[in-house]
Design brief:
Pfam family, one: Phage_connect_1
Organism: Acetobacterium fimetarium
Strand order of the largest sheet: 1-2
Helix content: 40-55%
Shape: extended
Protein name: Phage gp6-like head-tail connector protein
Length: about 110
């Protein structure tokens, strides 16, 4: 995966998000190679890898110092209490949404 191509797909210019984007690339590469039992991302799965990296960057709100992802469940002002709800749509879907595309490249290991 190429950092510059991911930046173009996300519409990012400049180098201030390069470390975060490289983390996304490394994370997706690790997920795909682990799932497929391969040393590298299979050539036919490269577009899927870019889509996964874009989803990871957008849904995890990486690079932001803010904790709020719009997932606040409740706020109490007296003695200050904030509770967050889990984004189950995303956390359960990153690999799950791409499993069908990646399964064709998966190797059987014993």
């Amino acid at each position: 995966m190429e950092l510059e191509k991911l930046k173009q797909l996300l519409g990012i210019t400049g180098a201030d998000q390069d470390a975060v984007l490289q983390f996304c690339i490394d994370n997706v590469t690790e997920a795909i190679t682990g799932y497929c039992h391969a040393d590298t991302i299979p050539g036919g799965a490269m577009n899927t890898a870019y889509r996964m990296a874009m989803d990871l960057y957008r849904n995890e709100n990486l690079g932001s110092t803010s904790v709020d992802n719009g997932l606040i469940a409740s706020i109490t002002e007296g003695d200050t209490s904030v509770s967050y709800k889990e984004n189950t749509d995303y956390t359960q879907s990153l690999l799950k949404n791409y499993r069908a595309q990646l399964s064709r490249y998966r190797k059987i290991v014993w």
